[in-house]
């Protein structure tokens, strides 16, 4: 295990500051707010060269530190906190729950070995790192449906839990935006599991709620190419929006069960839209006054806006990569001289930042920034702080890049 290090800056290029990520690919970026101090932070996940079976990392980056970089001299982005794990981390989530005397915070991480790791951030946020596992909870034991724990190790000073293993890499973890004790995990094994946090340490920390299995991802009885879930979001508090490697955009209401066999299995998913053969690599939600719209990034390079309330769906291609797959999306509300809702798109070797409200009103100047990159975009997010806006993105050459939008 390596010791805590800062991320060192390379030379600035075209308003971009590029930092070494110590040979790791930054696979996801999410913003969270400390419930006690109200300070904003970035939660990032890493995988070594993006490969499975290679070591990964979860880390907290200071937003104020990122925005203070000017490119002069030896600048650093400090890792406020990190956790090292033996497998690559593909997805990460922060959960803050009300608890006796304040808040209970967890980090949820999806690993390339198929596990969902849970870390107690409240107990450890003043430390610099966590480097060993505690105990593991499995959904099944010898085929039984009951969730049972298996202790591995339980030191008193921190807590970690590893949920039922997906058959292969975990592709997404998303907390419910209304009930943040509820979260979903998806994997390359074509399964989606819904879990509930109890907020109390012990053998009932996490409860298995329900499952969207391979058969529930089928959109018809004759479907052969099902694919796996590449990305998901809670469309509302009971409905999951799912994107698949076979190019399907699906909705699944987790309240509806099959009614036969395993009572925990959700009903068949509803297909909203299908690409012309390419995978959907990411999806994002845009909530405006007219409702909730879904934005997809697919293998053809198209970024498509879909209103699932329209029957049939009328997809609108809002931007496209030139002979490049569209890989990553983020919809973010930022405040500079005014408030904007920006869509950040990561392609194979470029990125675009678009103003969604200008696009919606059919203004021509909706493109905020376009930039070529040296490698495929692995993660992307646009943030504002102190009246300034910046796009932070990871690339597969093991860099963290910061682009100023001013």
List the helices and strands and how they pair.
Elements: E1 7-8, E2 16-20, E3 24-33, E4 40-48, E5 56-62, H1 63-67, E6 76-77, E7 79-85, E8 89-99, E9 102-111, E10 116-120, H2 121-124, E11 129-130, E12 135-138, E13 148-151, E14 160-162, E15 170-175, E16 182-187, E17 192-197, E18 206-212, H3 214-217, E19 229-234, E20 239-244, E21 248-253, E22 270-274, E23 280-288, E24 291-298, E25 302-306, E26 316-320, E27 326-335, E28 339-347, E29 350-355, H4 356-360, E30 367-372, E31 377-385, E32 388-395, E33 399-404
Oligomer: single chain
Largest sheet: 6 strands, mixed
Strand arrangement within the widest β-sheet reads: 8-9-10-14-12-13
Residue stretches low in confidence (pLDDT < 50, at least 5 long) are 1-13, 133-159
Q: How much of the residues is beta strand, in percent?
A: over 45%
Mean pLDDT comes to 82
Number of H- or I-type helical stretches: 4
Which structural category fits the helices and strands?
mainly beta
Q: How much helix, percentage-wise, in residues? A: under 10%
Nearest-angstrom radius of gyration?
A: 21 Å
| End-to-end distance | 39 Å
- Coarse shape: globular
DSSP E strands, number: 33
């Amino acid at each position: 295990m390596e010791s805590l290090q800062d991320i060192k800056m390379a030379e600035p290029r075209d308003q971009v500051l590029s930092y070494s990520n110590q040979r790791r690919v930054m696979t996801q970026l999410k913003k969270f707010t400390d419930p006690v101090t109200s300070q904003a932070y970035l939660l990032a996940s890493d995988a070594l060269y993006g490969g499975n079976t290679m070591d990964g990392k979860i880390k907290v980056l200071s937003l104020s530190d990122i925005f203070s970089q000017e490119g002069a001299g030896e600048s650093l982005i400090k890792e406020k906190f990190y956790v090292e794990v033996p497998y690559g981390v593909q997805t990460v989530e922060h959960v803050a729950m009300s608890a006796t005397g304040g808040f209970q915070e967890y980090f949820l991480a999806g690993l390339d070995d198929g596990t969902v790791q849970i870390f107690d951030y409240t107990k450890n946020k003043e430390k610099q790192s966590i480097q060993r596992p505690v105990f593991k909870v499995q959904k099944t034991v010898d085929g039984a449906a009951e969730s049972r724990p298996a202790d591995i190790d339980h030191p008193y000073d921190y807590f970690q839990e590893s949920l039922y293993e997906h058959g292969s890499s975990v592709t997404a973890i998303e907390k419910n935006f209304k009930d943040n004790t509820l979260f979903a995990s998806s994997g390359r094994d074509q399964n989606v599991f819904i879990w509930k946090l109890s907020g109390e340490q012990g053998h009932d920390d996490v409860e298995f709620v329900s499952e969207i299995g391979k058969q529930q991802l089928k959109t018809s009885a004759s479907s052969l190419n099902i694919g796996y879930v590449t990305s998901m979001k809670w469309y509302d508090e009971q409905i999951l929006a799912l994107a698949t490697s076979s190019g399907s955009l699906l909705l699944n209401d987790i309240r509806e069960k099959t009614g036969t066999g395993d009572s925990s299995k959700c009903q068949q998913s509803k297909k909203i839209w299908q690409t012309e053969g390419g995978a959907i690599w990411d999806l994002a939600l845009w909530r405006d006054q007219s409702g909730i719209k879904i934005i997809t990034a697919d293998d053809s390079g198209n970024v498509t806006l879909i209103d699932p309330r329209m029957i049939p769906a009328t997809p609108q291609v809002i931007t496209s990569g030139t002979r490049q797959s569209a890989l990553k999306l983020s919809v973010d509300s930022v405040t500079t001289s005014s408030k904007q809702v920006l869509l950040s798109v990561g392609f194979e070797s470029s990125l675009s930042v678009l103003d969604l409200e200008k696009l919606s009103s059919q203004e021509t100047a909706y493109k905020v920034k376009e930039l070529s990159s040296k490698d495929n975009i692995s993660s992307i997010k646009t943030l504002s702080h102190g009246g300034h806006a910046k796009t932070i993105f990871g690339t597969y050459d093991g860099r963290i890049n910061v682009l100023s939008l001013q």
